[in-house]
């Protein structure tokens, strides 16, 4: 906790508390946007020049290699799209990046607006759609009291 206070980063509790997130995802296309976001973290942070070069990431394990079946990884819930590595290395558009970050931070469902609203109502996730904390009280304009 002292580290987070000193460096003004987020974090609470024990090492893994709030580290792993889950949130509802609408469909395969949105799932793969989230996968791209996760697999390109080291590239986005400037730690590598290509996402598959990150030693601790899984992307490099999916490249064609002498080891046809990477033993450390399960195939995943869906087959990867063609040219997956190139897709991961291409940056997400700003709207996708912003939306994924909000979902990760707040546990907000990720998908199209209408779907998100219905899931929020159905699962009681209204709080994920608003900023944390109390609503700010707006100051009354000065000319409002003049009458």
Distance between the terminal alpha carbons, to the nearest Å? Answer: 53 Å
Compute the number of strand runs.
Answer: 0
Put simply, the count of helices is 6
Percent strand: under 5%
Based on helices, strands and strand pairing, what is the structural class?
A: mainly alpha
Overall pLDDT score? 82
The secondary-structure element order is HHHHHH
The major sheet is characterized as: none
Our Rg estimate from Cα atoms comes to: 20 Å
Number of domains: 1
| Apparent shape | elongated
Uncertain ranges: none
Estimated helix fraction: 25-40%
Q: Can you characterise this structure?
A:
This protein is mainly α and 147 residues long. It has helices at 2-7, 28-39, 41-44, 84-89, 94-106, 113-123. The protein has one domain. It is 35% helix and 0% strand.
Task: Summarize the model shown.
The chain has 147 residues and is mostly helical.
Architecture blueprint of SSEs:
Layout: H1 2-7, H2 28-39, H3 41-44, H4 84-89, H5 94-106, H6 113-123
Key terms:
0% strand; 147 residues; single chain; mainly alpha; elongated
